[in-house]
TrEMBL record:
Keywords: Cytoplasm, DNA-binding, Iron, Metal-binding, Repressor, Transcription, Transcription regulation, Zinc. The gene is fur. Belongs to the Fur family. One of its GO terms (cellular component) is cytosol. Its cofactor is Mn(2+); Fe(2+). It is found in: Cytoplasm. Homodimer. GO terms for molecular function: DNA-binding transcription factor activity; transcription cis-regulatory region binding; zinc ion binding. Binds 1 Mn(2+) or Fe(2+) ion per subunit. One of its GO terms (biological process) is regulation of secondary metabolite biosynthetic process. It comes from Pelagibacter ubique (strain HTCC1002). This is Ferric uptake regulation protein. It comes from the Bacteria. Fe cation binds at H87, D89, E108, H125.
Length: 136
């Protein structure tokens, strides 16, 4: 199992108040890329005294500390996930907002090929696919 956000904060010297600890815990347990409103909903159930402003500030702090990744998927609010070593891309259901994570070796290689063609060595990339579910 990977380290949780609380451990990462400790490792990076990010100070954790009790409220931040709750936000870190909820975020660690969320695998669905929540936005701040959704995260606030979850956090409120544990501690109703936490304000949405605190959630915003904490998420921003975690993002700036390299603990969370922020995604600005088009047509929606910024969504967050724990930044882990493993790379993956996203397929976004434009109707439900559901997010599917995937890694495709062919796409990875193809992107390197394109960068190479223009004389570049690829250091990072971001791929977002948007779709609607086919009727079966
Ligand atoms: Zn993801």
């Amino acid at each position: 199992m990977s380290e949780n956000i609380e451990q990462k904060c400790l490792a990076k010297g990010v100070k954790l108040t009790d409220q931040r600890k709750i936000i870190a815990k909820v975020m660690s347990e969320s695998n669905d890329h929540p936005d701040v409103d959704e995260l606030y909903n979850r956090v409120s159930k544990i501690d109703p005294k936490i304000s949405i402003a605190t959630v915003y500030r904490t998420v921003k702090l975690f993002e700036e500390s390299g603990i969370l990744a922020k995604h600005d998927f088009k047509g929606g609010k910024a969504r967050y996930e724990e930044l882990n070593e493993g790379h993956h891309d996203h397929l976004i259901d434009v109707k439900s907002g559901e997010i599917i994570e995937f890694v495709d070796e062919e796409i990875e290689k193809l992107q390197e090929k394109i960068a190479d063609k223009y004389g570049y060595r690829l250091v990072d990339h971001k791929l977002e696919l948007y779709g609607v579910k086919k009727k079966s």
